Structures are given as structure tokens and as C-alpha cells.
Amino acid sequence: MTPKELRVGSVHDPATNETSIVQVFRYSAATWNTHRIHYDKDYATTEGYPGVLVQSHLHGAFLTKYCTDLAGRDATLRDLSLRVKKFAVAGESLTVVGTVSAVRPGEPGRALLDLTLVETRGSDDEVCVEGTATLDVPLTWIDEGAVV
Amino acid sequence: MAVDDALRASLQDEVGVEHVESLGEISATLTRRYAAAVGERDPLYHDVAYAQSLGYANVLAPPNFLPGVINWGEGAPYDRLREDGTEADTHLPGVPAKGVRVMGGGEEMHFTRPVVAGTVVARRTVLLDVNERETRQGAMLVARYADEYLDESGDELLRSVRTVLLR
Q: Span A15-141: which CATH code?
């Protein structure tokens, strides 16, 4: 999916994030998240998990980055919603993919692009996160006639 | 403790109560560390000269930086940490110090304006509602908190509704 081709049903290239214990630790440190479930495997086991968990906000950061990478300098991320459906442990590969769900009128020369987002974990292809996003994009990105 | 009447009552007492907290100045070090932790290498988040070439006074914070930070202070003493390591006195009005497990369940964010490093930010938080669900592990409470992030002029930078799971 590239600018000038966007319409409902367009699928943007997937992006994979290779998580690690170091990344989960650094994210906890950068956000002052002291929850043991993100760095204490023994504690995580007492809650029924096989390892330390990727933070819900780190899942959100992966979705955010996916959208801002798509937006580049010409578009703007306006809204992002996400719901964590299944956990991911540090070390999982998490792949985000977005599909255009709607193209709406925006300010003059602009359009609002709605995306549905899915993040899956590589170990079993289970969906970890479902989300939606809205980007404010140049009208030149949109296939003629695609705005409804 | 798990979910009991005391937890239900503690949360219900907080529904609709507004809390305003100063988060202080958003330093470029904080935002750069956040970007590095995510794996975000866009120079807009790291390179001041690049950000200035686009008209910003300093580097930007990645869009979900503000709601991603759990605690903006120096951190609670160890005797004020819950069993799961989270801080008893901050962040989640209505949630008691001990005996409850806390997890993030999702978030809805609206990015009103870019957050430039150096901005002084305040957060207004309200517990919107609490609902109960039965899970395989027993009862779980789903609490929704509305957060609004404001700059020194009171202009909105970002607003969000975050879902917190308690059991």
C-alpha cells in the first residue's frame, strides 16, 4: 500500500517487532513501571504466565510506530485505540498489520483514513492486540472516488 | 484479597472524582529514552536540529509517550509498594495498597497536539466506571480511567481512556 493507492480494503505492509527481556526491562525503566510481572519471571509464574510480559503500553507503542511510519511527514496520527486480548512474553515476535476500513472527508485537501490494526504473536499466530487508528492524510494519497 | 466488597466500594467511591497532578517538565532525556526503548529511531524524536528544521523548538515525544509513563515522581518507598510491585499511592485512585493484581487492558487515545520536549504538563484523571466480569480465575473488575494531558496554558495535548483490569 503506497500513497495514491489507498482505498477501503488496502492492506499496509506488516511490521514485526522482535521483543526481548532487555527491551521489556528498558521500557519499564523508561516509563517507571515497577510491576513485577514485567521483570520477575518467578512472580509472573505465580500469576500463571510462562515468562515476563510485554507491557500493554509497549504493545501500544508498536501500533503507534506502525501508524507513524505509515504517516511519515505528510500525515498525522489523530486517534489510536487498542485492546489487549492475549498476553505476549518477552522474546515473542509481534507483527502488526493494518487495513484501511474507511476513507472519510477531512479538511480541504485532506482525508481521514481509518485503519483496523491487528498484532499477532509469532509463536502461535494468536492475536494479542486489536486496534483502530485514524490518520489525517493528504487527499493525494487516496484513490480517486475512494472517499465516502 | 482478589475482588471483594471492600475493593468494589473503594472503586465506586472514586467514580467521578477528579484528580489533577503536575507531571513537571517533559525532558528530552525522558522522551529520547522512551523512543530508544520502543526501538523508534526517527530523528524527530532524537535530533534537536532535525526537529527544529521542521519548526519545533525541541525533539518530540513519541505520540503515546505521555500515557505510557506509569509514574512521574521519584517513586514510592518500598513499604508503599503493592505485592505486585506497583505503587500504592499513585496512579490508580481507588485501588488499595495490597492484595489486588493490576493489569493494563487497553487504551483509547486522541492526539490533539505534538508534545515537544520542554513542555510542562499536567494530567487530570477521573475514574469513569467500574464493571465486573467472571473469568476462569474468578471475578475481575474492569475500571476505565479518563486522562487529559494539558500544557501550562491549559491547552489539551492528548486525552485518553485507559482500561485497567483488577483481580
A: 3.10.129.10
